[in-house]
Amino acid sequence: MKRSFALFAIIALAVMALLTSSCAGDRTLEKASATITAGELRDYTRILGADSMMGRKPFTPGEDITIKYLAGELAKLGFEPAFGDSWYQEVPMVEITTVVDGKVLITCGGNSMELAAPDDIAVESPSMRQYVELEEIPMVFCGFGIVAPEYGWDDFAGLDVKGKCAVVLVNDPGLYTGDSTLFKGKEMTYYGRWTYKYEEAARQGAAAILIIHETTGAGYDYSIPRKSSLSPGLYMETAKDGLEPCPVTGWLNAEAASRLFNMLGHDVESLQKNACQPGYKGFETEASISLKLNNSHTRNNSFNVAGIHRGTTRPEECVILSAHWDHFGIGEKENGDSIYNGAVDNGTSMAWAFEIGEAFASMKKRPERSVIIFFPTAEEQGLLGSTWFATHPPVEVQNIIAAFNNDLLLPIGRMKDIMVTGYGQSELDDLLADAARHQDRYIMPDPHPETGMYFRSDHFPFARVGIPSLFARGNFDSREHGKEWAAEQERDYLANRYHKPADNFYPEMNFDGVAEDAQAILEVAYKIVTSDIRPGWKPGSEFANIRY
Ligand SMILES: [Zn+2]
């Protein structure tokens, strides 16, 4: 009798030890998690999506109102300013309006052809020069324009593009061959994004970079680059020792590219097929391009906002929670409404960040590492605020252990899934899978990785400097109404409210799922700031070589 009681006691102790060592048994985390409520998420979203914020557009009075509100709320939570004694980080930007002066002319021996802007060629100029002229510079076909050591791939090997015009294919070879072992198969790698191709061409010293447009590979039709070439571009000023961008960047319409290569005795289809072969060599064509651009520049500053909750023993190390504050301001009227409130883009995500921040601030025992809540500006203009922050961080970049971002968090109730955009990139996925299990949820990859969404929100500039970063939320599988219903909610939002004045706060919004998303990320972030773990990139990630 006595012996069996002792045995029972030992088993009971062992079970208790097991329970308390798992996160589900951590009282500090449990209590903090309970401070995340649907009601508070609703309040933040209502305020951030109110007309009084004037659509939160950079460089307008709406910016002042928004950033002061954000800093005030961070202070209320007990956070301290993250930039020395300031809540604000100035982000120097320049707006460049580019006008094509005259004709774009291509010559090849005795032949020549004209390209019409913007129908055949959509060019922009991220250059601080007022006048950019290319005079009969050689055009070099450089495959996909990719240098990827981890795949043993170098489209510029043996080619000299200095001062010349690089012409490249869109996306990466994996998309076109159906070979899942080539790059990441159908899933777009960063090498497939136009932003990467522009950067690589700049590193190679090209004077111009033109991407041959193709709708599947780009993820959108030619009207998108065409339209953006007609409106002014917003850029960050280049840092002193930073890489100067190519003075001419842009796209060739597929039909115009066909005409051009036919004139040269090639066809784009076979070029694409050949360029997918490992070891493919590009070539300098016999064609040269001439064009003149007039640029006008307007400088302006906008502001990032961030607060820090300092850790106890390792305050210099931190995790970051981010959600962009900017939206489109006051613009074209639709159905009598001209204020682009951006309640879902990105009010709900800011609410998510605040609630996670509040949970950390509520802990009686502060974590060892710090937590930074970061609201970037100018996401909608090309991730400018977060790019500036990641390259000018308030702490040493290697001390940023992980970054968590959210964008377009739909308040449609509790979900069974946590969809990870960029699934498989880093070990953060594994920590999230644990947290999901504790909520009786499962994690899943973004079902459309070919659109390259991982490269299109504010977690990405962190990834680019080597910081594992996660963009994850319930999106796919409603607990109450199922998958079809969830997909319909997303379709409805994208068709009727996304980037429209109708992206308002609505009383029927259900924040229960946003609360669970915040609690899941809280658990992952808590694990990191209360330990010395450093989640790494997974093998095969294009970011694996940057940091670890
Ligand atoms: Zn957004």
Number of strands: 21
Structural class: alpha/beta
How many domain modules?
A: 2
Helix share bin: 25-40%
In words, what does this structure look like?
This protein is an alpha/beta fold. It has helices spanning 2-21, 27-34, 38-48, 61-77, 173-177, 194-203, 215-218, 223-230, 254-263, 268-275, 343-361, 384-391, 428-438, 460-464, 482-496, 512-529, 544-547; strands spanning 80-81, 88-100, 104-108, 111-115, 121-124, 131-141, 147-148, 153-154, 165-169, 208-212, 233-236, 248-252, 283-309, 314-322, 329-334, 337-340, 369-375, 400-405, 417-421, 442-445, 469-473. It folds into two domains: 29-93 and 300-547, Aminopeptidase (3-Layer(aba) Sandwich); 95-298, Glucose Oxidase, domain 1 (3-Layer(bba) Sandwich). The chain has a 17-stranded mixed sheet that branches. Strands 7-8 form a two-stranded antiparallel ribbon. Strands 15-16 form a two-stranded antiparallel sheet. Helix 11 packs across helix 16. Zinc ion is lined by residues 324, 345-346, 379, 407-408.
Can I get a quick summary?
The protein has 548 residues and is of the alpha/beta class. Helices cover 33% and strands 25% of the residues.
Give the secondary structure arrangement, pairings included:
Layout: H1 2-21, H2 27-34, H3 38-48, H4 61-77, E1 80-81, E2 88-100, E3 104-108, E4 111-115, E5 121-124, E6 131-141, E7 147-148, E8 153-154, E9 165-169, H5 173-177, H6 194-203, E10 208-212, H7 215-218, H8 223-230, E11 233-236, E12 248-252, H9 254-263, H10 268-275, E13 283-309, E14 314-322, E15 329-334, E16 337-340, H11 343-361, E17 369-375, H12 384-391, E18 400-405, E19 417-421, H13 428-438, E20 442-445, H14 460-464, E21 469-473, H15 482-496, H16 512-529, H17 544-547
Parallel strand pairs: 6-9, 9-10, 10-12, 14-17, 14-18, 18-21, 19-20
Antiparallel strand pairs: 1-13, 2-11, 2-13, 3-4, 3-13, 5-12, 6-13, 7-8, 13-17, 15-16, 19-21
Helix pairs in contact: 2-11, 3-11, 11-16, 13-16
This protein binds zinc ion (ZN).
